[in-house]
């Protein structure tokens, strides 16, 4: 019943076609990073071979061409997120960079001693540590929304945490470790009701879920291109214009200034105020191609295929003796995290790798979440548009072999 021709799609991804340890590669580590389709790779080569130049300042032909492509990417991200203005799109180095930007720029300027910041148990370290650093510096207080045994946030507890002291709420859209899709619309509304500003970490959401920052009324939304069939080292911070305008610059340097004298410097307008230095020009340009690729497939079609894989994998893995899936949230993306009785996750990862199967093992940069479930880590299989049921069968066979070798 698949609308997509998965075999044809697989042909767009050169990296998938190789043998690892004598077996065809089964790549099930898509939550860490997705593979890149040929059009994205071609865009990178095309830029470096055809019009590599520094942007904005140059008046020669190549500089103008590179600048136009760079700014066209900003427009395409604007459309992708349905942002009201292109200058609300700030190019960053990734999700981590975007969160640090907001914590340092907004946090330092507008938060003060005793103010409360709410995050959740599901957060990636990149949405924990920047806030802890800010709390240490400013004397703010960090509060954490708990999760239930299924891996869903406990919203009643969230409401208990909210008060007029709450100044900032920063929550993940989709958990990289368990796959939980959070009810971000409700989280944002409740935060706004007490006057708090909200950031949503969209790193894992953007390739699976339609994002409309205006419908969400979210204040900040961050993402990484490399989880979205795009290049590494490139991400986006969306911010409401009024907030970004009120915020001081994060990094100082070239490009982010209007005029510099030794006495005083004035800052550039949005979005350049937050884009100091030469950016990842090639990667920014290639992101537009990644978004076009995803659009051609159709996000709904991709999501339907991934949901099918999630259902199939959940079914098949549940039948393996001694295997327990961690995280059975009401709404999930295509991530299955699991543990096996008497077998360390690292051993599982090594034995699967010997069979050409790539999964992630460990704490997934979510140590507090692992601790909540009494674990040091899990094995995680995460599926993307180019994965197949046959690959899940390979995973299941691989896990039977793990049991045979380890028990
Ligand atoms: N948040 C989540 C939910 C993630 O999955 C990741 C990447 N694993 C990050 C933040 C950090 O993204 P990046 O490493 O691209 O900055």
TrEMBL record:
All copies of domain Aminotransferase class V, residue ranges: 26-395
Coiled coil residues, start to end: none
Reaction(s) catalysed (UniProt annotation): (sulfur carrier)-H + L-cysteine = (sulfur carrier)-SH + L-alanine
Listed InterPro entries: Aminotrans_V_dom, Aminotrans_V_PyrdxlP_BS, Cys_dSase_SufS, Cysteine_dSase, PyrdxlP-dep_Trfase, PyrdxlP-dep_Trfase_major, PyrdxlP-dep_Trfase_small
Keywords attached to this entry: Pyridoxal phosphate, Transferase
EC number(s) given by UniProt: 2.8.1.7
CDD domains tied to this protein: SufS_like
Needed co-factor(s): pyridoxal 5'-phosphate
Signal peptide region: none
Statement: the UniProt record of this protein carries the keyword NAD: no
UniProt keyword Transferase, yes or no: yes
Family: Belongs to the class-V pyridoxal-phosphate-dependent aminotransferase family. Csd subfamily.
Described purpose of this protein according to its UniProt entry: Catalyzes the removal of elemental sulfur and selenium atoms from L-cysteine, L-cystine, L-selenocysteine, and L-selenocystine to produce L-alanine.
Protein name: Cysteine desulfurase
Organism: Nibrella viscosa
